[in-house]
Amino acid sequence: MFSSINNLSFVECIFYYKLLPETIVFTSCSYKQHRSNMSKDKKVKYFQVTPGVWGMKLVFVNIFMIANRKGFPKGWVLVDAGIKGSADKIIAMAESIFGKGTQPTAIVLTHGHIDHVGALGELLEHWNVPVYAHELELPYLTGKSAYPPPDPTVGGGVMSLASLMFRREPLDLGSRVKVINMEEGIPELPGWQFIHTPGHAPGHISLFNPFNATLIAGDAFTTTKAESAIYVLNYFKKLSGPPMYFTTDWVAAEDSVKKLAALEPRIAATGHGPVMRGRELTLALNYLASNFEREAMPSGGRYVDHPIIADKEGTKYVPPFGVTHKFKAFALLVGAAAGFMAIRQVQKVLS
Ligand SMILES: [Zn+2]
Ligand SMILES: [Zn+2]
User: Rounded to whole angstroms, how far apart are CA atoms 165 and 225?
Assistant: First the structure.
């Protein structure tokens, strides 16, 4: 059964996933995923969301490029900046679409979590462009405040555990970061509306183009199970709430999903997961909005009953991590470590 444990096929991964906890299976499946991404380095792979909008998956998170429609000044905008080390891929994608030496007129951030701003520093060395974010996200982008700690006890997947290792310290973009005018949008992206969708992060925004009902939702909701490494790495489709481990205000998160469902998008591109469209999207999004508590909220967790409090200066209050949560987190970590060691032992015996 374990003879090829460090080289599992996609189907095998799923098979084992049914039998074993994700913490164990992920250790094996991740090798394969890493290699396949390495092989794509030379030829960048991206996908079209709708005419004038493209996306690219960077290991487990998406970035998007939006070109202005005909009739508007020429130009394009980058939405989010992916994980650290992906600047080369983002630049290669841009040059493949818009031509060699191209640069965006601006970078828009749906929010400032590390998986959405990881390559920002490298990109800004290459492109001298403004970065736009909601004013409540600015403290996390100007060195003023750190994000609240993640809750690894929610969601039950490897990504929830891995969130403990995500950097929370703020970036300091200084004067390069500008506040989005939520009423008028930004001059670099005419025709697109900006919607404040807090809950996952205080200044989280989504972008909507009423012309073709295209929604870029960031992490306000996702189209995969963001807590599960198996789902995010393999791009399995499932409309879900925001990634649980980083969501710090669940009441606001529910309001945000309802706000986005009311826009009746026909296409949704999210921070994690594949693009969803048409009837499949409408049904799933309406269902999520109507059943948010049951479908999206964890049954317990640090932020479920007590949201964080944040303002323009950053995080003001973080609820304490209760004894039960500490114990649950400890048990999860022990389980993950045991799983990892078990796989290593099997590999040693068979090598
Ligand atoms: Zn996020
Ligand atoms: Zn994310």
Answer: 19
344 Cα: distance to centroid of ligand 2 (angstroms): 30
Ligand 1 center–CA 210 separation, angstroms: 24
Q: What is the CATH number of domain 40-319?
A: 3.60.15.10
Question: Which one of the ligands is nearest to 63 CA?
Answer: 2
Per-residue pLDDT tens for 232-265?
888 899 999 999 989 999 999 999 999 999 999 9
- Owner of token pair 């092989």: 39
Dist. CA 349 → ligand 1 center (Å): 40
Tokens 């000044």 found at: 73
Distance 321 CA to ligand 1 centre (A): 20
The amino acid at 68: N
Total length of the chain: 351
Query: With left for phi above 0 and alpha for psi between -120 and 50, is residue 36 left, alpha or beta?
Result: alpha
Residue-wise pLDDT for 77-96, tens only, equals: 999 999 999 999 999 999 99
Ligand nearest to the CA of 205: 1
Global pTM value: 0.83
Domain boundary assignment for the chain: 1-39+320-351, 40-319
